[in-house]
Hints:
Structural class: alpha/beta
Helix content: 40-55%
Distance between the termini: 50 Å
Strand content: 5-15%
Number of strands: 5
CATH class: Alpha Beta
Order of helices and strands: EHEHHEHHEEHH
Largest sheet: 5 strands, parallel
CATH topology: Rossmann fold
CATH superfamily: Toll/interleukin-1 receptor homology (TIR) domain
Number of helices: 7
Number of domains: 1
Mean pLDDT: 88
CATH architecture: 3-Layer(aba) Sandwich
Amino acid sequence: MFDKVFISYAKEDYVFAEKLYDFLAENNFKPWLDKKNLLPGQQWDFEIKKGLRDANYVILLLSDNSVQKRGYVQREFKIALKYYEEKLEDDIYLIPIKINKCEVPEILSSFQWIEFENNSFDSILQALTIQQNKYLDYQQKQVNKHRTFETKEVSEEFLYKKKV
Length: 164
């Protein structure tokens, strides 16, 4: 629950995206990656937008390829930002990762990004887990708020009455 992670990347960065996908899957998250999740015959534009809409988190792989490339990767960045507008200010939803030397786009400058190093996957997992716990706590509070309890008084005589 609250485990869907959309990975946005430029096609030139697929090898890195696939490693991230495998890491997240091994750690009980459900990553979404076009080349792993799209089936033959599906309308890829619709499915990518659906994957973004359904995601609890979006990881944006920033590289000299993705930030300078015109096309669909830019559209994914903008759609993710649109969905971010529905989140709380302290939610962790967009996670930019610099996978090589590149300029972080101005539109993403308000988000803390991470420069990929050996332990970066652990930091990403930590961020996802913190937000996942926030979602779960909120959900539990909502359930408790709507839970009603009925109490009945039972006489002592009834409690201690022996069966014959």
